[in-house]
């Protein structure tokens, strides 16, 4: 019998200021695993941290008690792992493989020694599509084949969709985030009979439509603010959102993507309108400084065929409408020269070597020809206006 614990892999801003805060208020005992030794030691020494949640009724939540382990405390962490049914990851997408590699021997050991009626569910809460399914594929690499059936039966890999901004903290003990939280998870992937009750966490039967709504409206709008704001030299999302020209483009972009989502999934027009407005209402708020550098990192991933720009653009084409403003953000992502970002470096190298044709042929080969053509036509105007 497991305790009401929640393991959170990654004690960064999202892990503590979103998932940790909500799980704590739902009565879960928090167990963090963190690779940053300085952060782990600071949290362990102080034994608490604060989350300020910004809204019309801003409030503070003190999080205590909790346990926190560093990567080299594997034996002690494994004891917590065995006694916990609910596991979250809150690491960047490019760290999911490392998390899977770390957990693989523990999952194997647990499957070998635990009773057949015990189950675990992992909810990967990265800002990407199907992150838990991706985590599973990493975990399965070099996994003992004889244990795969047990893994399938007793370990749920539950795709999630999350939305909440938590600013990068200056003080590790004081986090600043928005009260707003959206969080859905695929109920079909759950294992065992327990249904975990955490505020805003909604287990749904049609996870894909909620994923697309969030990715193609919330993430699309956020990225549009981010890349256009980056080109104009802004530092924070609220600065970009306060720019009338950028706000106008972002509103038109998510009108296009919202229309596509509505056509595809049958949401009502009013539901989509309110969803769009929730984003454009909160982005200009200066009380929650969200750094553009965080938003614009990894542009190649965000320019993927099913991601926040070309994904809804393809969906528009499917339903008979040609995108326009959705491609403003894509153009800005191609033009951005983001310091110390490998993706941005690859894009700029390809452009220098052979122009946009080189980018699409070598880095973004799955982009439909009609969207390539539109980007090529639009790019000089975006460069002229914003660069």
Write the layout of secondary structure elements.
Elements: E1 3-9, H1 13-25, E2 29-34, H2 37-46, E3 49-54, E4 59-63, E5 66-70, H3 74-82, E6 84-89, H4 96-113, E7 120-124, H5 131-140, H6 148-154, E8 155-157, E9 160-163, E10 174-178, E11 182-186, E12 201-204, H7 207-231, H8 237-241, H9 244-265, H10 269-282, H11 292-296, H12 299-302, H13 310-318, H14 326-335, H15 342-363, H16 369-386
Parallel strand pairs: 1-2, 1-6, 2-5, 3-10, 6-7, 7-8, 11-12
Antiparallel strand pairs: 3-4, 9-11
Helix pairs in contact: 4-5, 7-9, 7-10, 7-14, 9-10, 9-13, 9-14, 14-16
Question: Mind explaining what this structure looks like?
Answer:
This protein is an alpha/beta fold and 387 residues long. 52% of the residues lie in helices and 16% in strands. It is built from 16 helices and twelve strands. The strands form three sheets. It has a six-stranded parallel beta sheet, with helices on both faces. The longest helix has 25 residues, at 207-231.
Largest sheet report: 6 strands, parallel
Radius of gyration computed on alpha carbons: 21 Å
- Strands of the largest sheet, in order across it? 5-2-1-6-7-8
Q: Helical amount among residues, as a percent range?
A: 40-55%
Unreliable stretches (pLDDT < 50, length at least 5) are none
The DSSP helix count reads: 16
C-alpha termini separation: 59 Å
Q: Give the overall shape, derived from the CA principal axes.
A: globular
* Secondary structure category: alpha/beta
């Amino acid at each position: 019998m497991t305790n009401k614990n929640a393991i959170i892999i990654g004690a960064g801003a999202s892990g503590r200021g979103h998932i940790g805060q909500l799980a704590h208020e739902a009565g879960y005992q928090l167990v963090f695993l963190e690779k940053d030794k300085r952060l782990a030691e600071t949290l362990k020494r102080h034994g608490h941290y604060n989350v300020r949640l910004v809204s019309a009724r801003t409030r503070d939540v003190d999080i205590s008690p909790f346990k926190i382990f560093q990567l080299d405390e594997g034996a002690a962490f494994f004891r917590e792992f065995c006694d916990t049914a609910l596991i979250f990851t809150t690491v960047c997408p490019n760290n999911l493989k490392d998390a899977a590699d770390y957990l693989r021997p523990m999952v194997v050991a647990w499957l070998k020694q635990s009773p057949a009626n015990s189950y675990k569910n992992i909810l990967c809460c990265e800002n990407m599509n199907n992150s838990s399914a991706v985590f599973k594929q990493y975990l399965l690499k070099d996994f003992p084949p004889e244990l795969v059936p047990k893994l399938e039966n007793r370990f749920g890999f539950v795709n999630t969709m999350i939305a909440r901004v938590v600013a990068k903290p200056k003080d590790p003990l004081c986090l600043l985030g928005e009260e707003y939280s959206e969080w859905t998870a695929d109920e079909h992937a759950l294992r065992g009979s327990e249904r975990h009750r955490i505020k805003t966490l909604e287990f749904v039967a049609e996870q894909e439509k909620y994923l697309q709504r969030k990715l193609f409206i919330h993430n699309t709008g956020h990225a549009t603010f981010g890349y256009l704001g980056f080109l104009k030299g802004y530092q924070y999302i609220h600065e970009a959102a306060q720019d009338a020209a950028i706000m106008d483009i972002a509103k038109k972009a998510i009108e296009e993507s919202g229309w596509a989502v509505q056509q595809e999934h049958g949401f009502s027009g009013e539901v989509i309108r309110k969803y769009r407005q929730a984003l454009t209402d909160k982005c200009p708020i200066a009380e929650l400084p969200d750094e553009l550098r965080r938003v614009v990192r990894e542009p190649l991933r965000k320019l993927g065929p099913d991601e926040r720009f070309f994904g809804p653009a393809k969906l528009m084409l499917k339903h008979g409408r040609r995108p326009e403003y959705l491609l403003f953000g894509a153009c800005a992502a191609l033009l951005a020269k983001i310091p110390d970002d490998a993706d941005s470096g690859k894009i700029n190298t390809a452009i220098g070597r052979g122009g946009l044709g080189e980018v699409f042929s070598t880095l973004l080969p799955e982009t439909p020809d009609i969207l390539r053509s539109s980007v090529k036509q639009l790019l000089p105007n975006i460069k002229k206006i914003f660069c």
